[in-house]
Amino acid sequence: MMSESTITVEAAPPTGWDPVTFSLVLNRFQAIVEEMTLVLERSAWTSILALIHDYSCAIYDARYRQVCVVDGLPIHTTSMQLVVRAIAEAFEGDVKEGDVFACNDPYSGNTHIGDLVVVAPVFSGERLVFWSVSKGHQLDTGAPVPSSVYPRAENVWQEGVTVPPTKIFDAGEEVKGVLNLYYANVRYAGLLKGDLSAQIGSVNKGAQRLVELCDEYGTAEVLDYVDAVIGYADRRMRREIEAMPKGVFKAEGWVDSDGGGRENVPVKVAVTVDHDRVTVDYSGSAEQSRGGINGTLATAMAAGTIPFLYYIDPDIPHNEGCIQRVEVVAPEGSICNAKHPASTSLATIVPSDLMQDLVNKAMVEAMPERVPAGGTRNCNMPYISGGSGDGGWGFELLNSGGGAGASHGTDGWPLCFSQAALGGMKIFSIEQLELLYPVLIERAEIEMDSMGMGEWIGGPGVVVVVRPVDGPMTVIGCGDGCANPPHGSLGGTPGIGGGQYVESAAGDARLYFSAIGGARVPVGDVWVGVSTGGGGFGRPEDRPVEKVQADLRDGFISRDVAEGVFGLVLTGSGVEVDREATEIARQRLGQQARPSVVPNEPAASSWLEQHMRAGDSYAHDPLFEESHE
Amino acid sequence: MSNAKYRIGIDIGGTFTDFTVACPDGTNFLWKQDSTRPDPMVAIGKGLEAVSAELGLGVEALLGQTDLLVHGTTIATNMLIEWDGPVTGLLCTEGMRDTLHFRDGYRPSRFDVHLHHPGAPVDRHLRLSATGRINSAGEVIQPLDEESVVAAAARFREAGVVAVAISFLWSVMNPVHELRAEEILRRELPEAYVVCSHKVLPEMREWERTSATVLSAYVLPRIAEYLASLRSHVDGRGLQAVPQIMQVNGGCARIEDVLERPINIVASGPAAAPAAALHYRDLIGEDLVVVDMGGTSLDVCLIQDGRASMSRTIKVSDQPIGVEAVDVHSVGAGGGSIAWVDDGGALRVGPQSAGATPGPAAYDRGGDQPTVTDANVVLGYLSPDAFLGGRRRLRDDLSRKTIERHVAEPLGIDVIAAAEGIVRIVNDNMVSAIRAVSIERGIDIRGFTLVCAGGAGGLHAVELARQMGISRVAIPREAGVFCSFGMTVTEVRHDYLRARRMITDQVDLGELSSVIGDLEEQARRELSAEGFASEQIETRRYVDARYPGQIHEITVSIAGGEIDRFILAEFEDAFHAEHEKRFGYCRRELPVECLHWRVVGAGGLPLARPESVTGEGGSPAPTDSRELHFGSGPVASPLYESSSLGPDARVEGPAIIASATTTIVLHPGDELRCPRDISAGFIVDVAPKESRLSKTTNGATGEAA
Fold this sequence. Notes:
The complex is a heterodimer.
Chain A: H1 19-43, H2 47-50, E1 55-61, E2 66-69, H3 81-90, E3 100-103, E4 115-124, E5 127-137, E6 166-170, E7 173-174, H4 176-183, H5 189-217, H6 219-242, E8 247-257, E9 263-273, E10 278-281, H7 297-310, H8 320-323, E11 326-329, H9 352-363, E12 383-386, E13 393-396, H10 430-436, E14 439-446, E15 462-468, E16 473-476, E17 488-489, E18 498-503, E19 510-513, E20 518-521, E21 526-531, H11 545-553, H12 559-564, H13 579-590, E22 597-598, H14 607-611, E23 617-619, H15 622-627
Parallel strand pairs in A: 10-11, 19-23
Antiparallel strand pairs in A: 1-2, 1-5, 3-4, 3-6, 4-5, 6-7, 8-9, 9-10, 12-13, 12-16, 14-15, 15-21, 16-20, 17-22, 18-19, 18-21
Helix pairs in contact in A: 1-5, 1-6, 5-6, 7-9
Chain B: E1 6-12, E2 16-22, E3 28-34, H1 41-54, H2 59-64, E4 66-72, H3 75-82, E5 88-93, H4 99-102, E6 127-130, E7 133-134, E8 140-142, H5 146-158, E9 163-167, H6 176-188, E10 193-196, H7 197-200, H8 206-235, E11 244-246, E12 252-254, H9 255-260, H10 273-278, H11 281-284, E13 288-293, E14 298-304, E15 307-308, E16 310-311, E17 315-316, E18 319-320, E19 325-326, E20 329-331, E21 337-341, E22 347-353, H12 372-378, H13 396-411, H14 415-437, E23 449-453, H15 457-468, E24 472-475, H16 482-489, E25 492-503, H17 509-529, E26 537-546, E27 554-557, H18 565-583, E28 593-603, E29 624-629, E30 634-641, E31 650-652, E32 655-658, E33 663-666, E34 671-673, E35 682-685
Parallel strand pairs in B: 1-4, 4-11, 5-6, 5-9, 9-10, 13-23, 23-24, 30-32
Antiparallel strand pairs in B: 1-2, 2-3, 7-8, 11-12, 13-14, 14-15, 14-20, 16-19, 17-18, 21-22, 24-35, 25-28, 26-27, 26-28, 29-30, 31-34, 32-33, 34-35
């Protein structure tokens, strides 16, 4: 099923096409999707869409080929054809102009239940020519807890309301009962209604522009140029893969917790770069989980493909021609691609963030200049909620997101959030947060020494302190990569992993909990999240001394790290160094042998041991344990 | 403030310092002076000498009879591009040192793993915090620890900081901590410049506000010095009026006002364009698209009902300026944009530019990449011997050769088809930029006039208009020095703003009226103190609003006077309508949440009416004929000198009209006419586009199947 989308592509630009019209049509598709994206962002209601950008817009043709996607959320945009096809097949013979369909069902080709796909067919006269599509993460799915991702869900019925392929507008008329049924089963229905309006507005805008395009150039001609646009990306992608080192490259990593009782769960990958195709195979990974942490077909396809999209020229359009050159194999029944009715509540982040990063871990030796070190995996970005009934409120906190991995020539960025997003999300301003919700953000700052060190350092992690000010709040974690931190590459060290805890009013006791744990925070206490920085790249002793001095002066790193890891020999209380002694110390560091990637064993983070004090406690998931006592 | 005096606009650009002198008889004298670096004052001095001489006056006589001198400077913008400013510090709320580093969290180009973080304008070791906290209601929940401010001051002193920005959370709701910290810093660091966020940009959202404040502090020492030297220069030569400085909001303000909010002069370069275009409103209306095309980029801004579109998301060097600014959308599309064929066989134009050096191949200065200018040469639109009034000869053989080699051969098409392709693609890039500020915001611009400025504009403007369905193009006589002209016809503008969250179904009308009334009164008071009579003062009111629970706001105007139920309901209607227009839906069942209340105070001086410039109309005679390509074989087309066209003259396309600063290309069916008042420039009535795009002439490969 995964490689069924096959297309014939010429080796060179097809004769008989006009290269200028081709460029104009290519640009126009981009412009249309950009406009869809803008409409969605600016008119959405919840922070998840309007700020966090957890959505993607795209155009597919009548054969479900991805024609154009612009700046979408990576995890959405390499496998959306699966759900478009599922919708089309479910309504075969009953697709009319003015129809709008919705679906969130992971077993109908969707990524996970949190993502609602809204699709409008586009007609030119009688003929269906395109599908205008938006996929947006919903603030709530109707799960037992106020979070759209629920690590404890044991099956599809516990993760929220499944929306199988469903018609929500019939020839322009709203199918009222259906939407009412949906809204009755989710929290924050008013907000979700706003988001759905924005998604519908976006796909309708796309449909309108596509019709205008067909009117302007002629439908038959536009469709010919769709082939040309796909062939163009295919040619460029093929050339990229042909230039890559050939072979089979392997890596292993571990998911912190699977929501079903297992910890440090192994995921394996073998990447085969063949002549002009790539296969990413997750065979050998753990069995599927009994909890909500499982991948879907769509997320597996995306996770395996995404890294190859950043190994290539960023200018190559990510359409069908490009993405179909990477084939993904994920055995059904594994944690990477679960079988119905397993819950796949967190599929877009866990285990898919790790699945993506393992491709980097496998490929870095082969392509050091293109492959970044490990990045944060959605750690410390909890759903925070409080109140009840009409006074209920909730949001996903991104301001505490972790850092990106460093890459050859570039330090990592802060606030990478997750591999699924690659930094393309926006945070709340602190003032907006405090205006909209009864919380006080007491701190949101870079955490010293949180990133992996190297010639290029990982993006820093962040420490955030949140205080409830009007009634208790509930914090639900939904991430990974605290116990098993982002890897360092080619001599670089891993990120710290980090973690989260609730600190008592007196400050004398902390309750630490895991990346997927939840906790109640009474008024007086605070939630503290310390996110990991990204992995470092290259050997730390090769980082220019001036840069390390600046890192030290700016408090990105401590004196201990400047001396112990980077080999600086400091002469006073400032950042001055003894150049000669530093040179010698760095040579000594240079003689140490180091594996090409670290860590290579599970549970490598020592953050908890370092930070827990006498009197502090740890629970895997205090909220769950409390409710099951 | 009498009318019968001179007005002077001085606009400093990278290459030229443009002068416009609006004379008492209503005519405009235009001048271009070479810019000087590092001291731009030299060019100003020389330019003033030159224009006074041309007008038959001494500098003192000219300045003595000048009642408005407006200056547009890039000095602040350049500092933010070069980052060569003084050591600057930031004092912020404890726990929030990294606001500038975190930005909005967004990483553009997410598939580019080698993209560098833009960094913060102040290094982290100079981002210090003060203890003390105010909440969203403006309540002090932790008093300011003055010792922490004193300690920060000591570290600033030690580091040699000369400018400090203070930006505390929620200072927009209660500035008490910022004010006290300012006092302490002024006491502790008497030599330093100190800037407070609640004065620079009293808006919620700390990243934008902090950035605006830090950038203000960063540019302040240098602009203070520069503007002082400007002032002493013109004061010493007889200027009685207070020099005004062009702001990014499209209006000007006195030197002392811009020193209060220095961020307002950052990125002000193109902000005078709307005023310039609106000067011709009687002739071309108040719905305008203004395009300014130069060698490397195209700037577009939109004017609707006589008001320029404004933006609050402008960034300079990746740092947000936060303040309301004329929304100028730029794309890398100009005469120097390079055409290339990528490794997938697609023809691309830009964003790389050959710039002025080496420039297009036709310049024969070492440029060997094909540019848009080269394509225009090959198509016959630019005359090899009439470019820039004959000041520069163009080598059409070099243009042809480079297009042949880099575009035509790789694509397997002939050189004319390749040149047409280049022009179509660059036009399409420019059309996308125009769409982005119009159609994509729900604004139908088919009834608008496209106003064209900049040297390269005339070559493309008519075609851009056609693609957009616009039927009229205006090319003002001042197109070559457009912004300096705009400065002579702009208004004095001050923006006033208060952050106060209110929801329309729970609003206290009395409080609301007093919030906005206070701002209005302040506007009137300050403008009348500047010498404006009350009939010259205009106030306009706006609200940043959204549906409760929504994240982003839109700015909607609200009627003047005491706010009653009726005005509020009218405002709600306007909000719903604007939301629907932009985003395709609205929810009339909901109330509206208001966040920021804005008052624009504008002081305008009546302008002398130009005396009617008479001249002979009749039928103009072409001076030459050229072969032009318009998507089919060559067409013999007449060439006219613009100076030969008198009032009411008409020219039908195909034709070329050449002047010293620009060349206008008319396609078959277009018609150019001169207004009766010839000083206004030219108007082109644009032939409509065919229903389908004509395809490139392409003998080699034929049309697409």
